[in-house]
Amino acid sequence: MAYHPRAYLSRRRNLRTGLATRTKILNVLEEKPCTAKEASQKIGKNYSSVLRQLHSLRAEGVVDRSGQKPPYVWLTTGIGQQRLNDIVTN
Prior knowledge:
single chain, Arc Repressor Mutant, subunit A, 2 strands, globular
């Protein structure tokens, strides 16, 4: 399986299951920002797993959430892609 380039985290171990889940989440969020519940339904993973991965991605600056209170809408940021481009050009 090809993993999404922004699914790799620098602060955590990148196990296959986490990478696969983060890849699916990022693919969903790139199509359209959505809540954690909507993302979990689209990728077929339980809500708590998706939320845990979203928080990990947020800690790395790859995703962010909008809204004043739950349910938050999650969306991708440009930081992860910028970091990847910096690595490739150096």
